[in-house]
Amino acid sequence: MGDPREPPGGTPEGGSNDDEFRSVVFDESFVRAARIQELSAQERLSGAFGRATRTRGWLSLPRQAVVLLLVVALAFAAAVYFGISSPRGSVAPPSGTQLTVSLTPLAPAGAVTAAADRTAPFAGLPGGYADGSAGLGLPAATATAHFTGSQVQRALDTAQQYLVASALTPTTLTANGTAQVRALITAGELVQYDESTNSPRDDQHHDATGWMVRFDPGQIALATDTVKVTGSVHIGELDSNTLEVTTDHTLVYALRPAGTTSDPAVTLYAVRRAVRLDIDRADLDAGRLRVVDTAVQAGPSSCSAGQSDYLQPMLATTAGVRPSTPPAVNPADHDRPAWQSCGVLGPITG
Asked: Which parts pass through the membrane (predicted)?
């Protein structure tokens, strides 16, 4: 007799019997992972007559895949959030050459006397001075080996903006303004600039008066907003990627005591300011520059007064002010920084 498990007539040709599928185990996890599941009796009675099955969707994915998708989604959301919420205009870390400052107060050789005519304080100046930016002496823009004429002109325009903002603008001179100068400083120097203006110190790198000309608004006021200027500006290439601007100017300010005073005396205060500025291609596009070196001579000033925060003029009175004698310098005194020096102010000439 044949095997009762075989169909009548034997196993069909090309077919197989159940023995071939005995190794396949449809365990509980396999059944639950199926994408198609038959509706329950309750679901069929509730009106879902049009379909006998329901799709399980993404819930049918293995647990590891679901966790992986959640991690990816969270990472993407975090990247978007921090990209949107990160602060704009953040200060770049210090980079490249930092500003070096040399500042020499000039003590008067005799009594500090007031301008002869306080309504026209500059009348006694020799020829060669002009009002404000007209005296800066900017050259014509010509192409260099690696920069076009238009690029050189843009560099000169930025340099002029800096010279005006840092030495000719009343807000900077006597109102503690620092924003106009800061807007022109390269990103890599902003940390040094902020330290210099917030906590100036005499260390050749953090003198606020290295970045700009400024006076203590509690002590000094401008008798007139006009500043007389004479000097020159030169531009050339430092290298194939950088333009170098060198400036050397004498600026004469008409000053008086701040606030209400019964003394109408006006003092002429002279500042010689030599500045080296570097402008690379990135700063050229951004309209910024790097202030590399500043050398300042200013008087009449007291040799003993600190000059890192504000320049310290000796103001004349109608009776005249007798200066103190500049102190002798002992070359063997290493307790005093070598850069701290004082000179004697001579006549202001053109």
From this structure: 65-84
pTM: 0.72
Looking at the structure, tell me whether residues 173 and 114 fall in a common domain: yes
Asked if residue 185 has pLDDT above 90, the reply is yes
203 and 147 in a single domain? The answer is yes
- Do 224 and 317 belong to one domain? yes
Residue with tokens 């002590």: 219
Lookup result for tokens 């329901």: 54
Q: Tell whether 45 is covered by a domain.
A: yes
Closest CA to 270 of 178, 161, 343: 343
In a domain, 12, yes or no: no
Give the separation between CA 244 and CA 235, rounded to whole angstroms: 6
- Quick one: pLDDT at residue 84? 41
pLDDT at 37 over 70: no
Same domain membership, residue 172 and residue 304: yes
User: Does residue 96 contact residue 315 with C-beta atoms inside 8 Å?
Assistant: no
User: Token digits for 88?
Assistant: 């704009």
Give the rounded percent of residues in the chain with a pLDDT score beyond 70.
70
- Yes or no: say if 272 and 250 are a contact pair by the CB < 8 Å rule: yes
264: three-class secondary structure by DSSP: coil
Residue 70 has pLDDT above 90, yes or no: no
What domain count does the chain have? 2
* Strands, E assignment, 33-99: 36-38, 53-55
Q: Are residues 282 and 255 part of one domain?
A: yes
Q: Is the Cβ–Cβ distance between 174 and 222 less than 8 Å?
A: yes
